[in-house]
Design brief:
This protein is of the alpha/beta class. It contains nine helices and nine strands. It has a five-stranded parallel beta sheet, sandwiched between helices.
Length: 221
């Protein structure tokens, strides 16, 4: 490899992207996201701030940033959160600073959020970094079967989750990519393909214009 080529590789560093995965409960998003994180060192999971107390085994800064209601409200008011929502009486939100630092360093950030959080990200100044993927189950009957197979929820809870699923699925058109999770490995391969393609987009190749100009200049010498 020539000195010029080596310099070109260094000068075309890539900006990271915000890789959002949304789905109704039971569609397989958690399994897919865990596998994607395990297989790819270039992507990291966004860690949310929350007002709920830690559960057994949860660690500060790895599972969540645990903050008081007052601190969370201050983060909202001072623009420290990219998105936030209230879920079952507790607040959750994505701290802006670590995400922006990762993107600038060329690392991708995986978001496990719903359509409302995704809409909020779309309205930020980082919207050009956003890639939105929605995971669908094969059908609603299969989704309900998966929920019941967990054997952890009462019928009334499952009915509520199914109602929420219908609402979430109705927002599928707001996403860039729609995947139907009939097979985990097949769906995972599609996720990897999307991630690879989005990483190669021209707008994410920093210094590419300068590299091409230098290449053409060298050719003229």
């Amino acid at each position: 490899m020539t000195d010029f080529a080596q310099a070109g590789m260094a000068s075309t560093a890539r900006r990271g992207l915000m890789f959002v995965m949304s789905s109704p409960s039971g569609a397989g998003k958690t399994t897919l996201s865990r596998q994607l994180l395990a297989d790819d060192d270039g992507i990291t999971l966004s860690v949310s701030a929350t007002t709920r107390p830690p559960r057994a085994g949860e660690r500060e800064g790895e599972d969540y940033y645990f903050v008081s209601q007052e601190t969370f409200q201050e983060m909202v008011e001072t623009g420290q959160l990219l998105e936030w929502a209230k879920v079952f009486g507790n607040h959750y939100g994505t701290p802006r600073a670590p995400v922006e630092a990762a993107l600038a360093a060329g690392r991708d950030v995986l978001f496990d959020i719903d359509w409302q959080g995704t809409q909020q990200l779309q309205q930020t100044d980082a919207a050009s970094d956003l890639v939105r993927v929605f995971i669908l189950p094969p059908d609603l009957a299969e989704l309900e079967r998966r929920l019941r197979a967990r054997a952890t929820d009462a019928d009334v809870v499952i009915a509520d989750r199914m109602a929420r699923a219908r609402d979430e699925i109705s927002h599928w058109g707001e996403y860039d990519y729609i995947l139907i999770n009939t097979d985990v490995q097949g769906c995972l391969a599609e996720l990897r393909a999307i991630l690879t393609g989005e990483r190669l987009r021209r707008r994410r190749q920093l210094g590419l214009a300068e590299f091409v100009r230098a290449m053409l200049g060298e050719a003229e010498q």
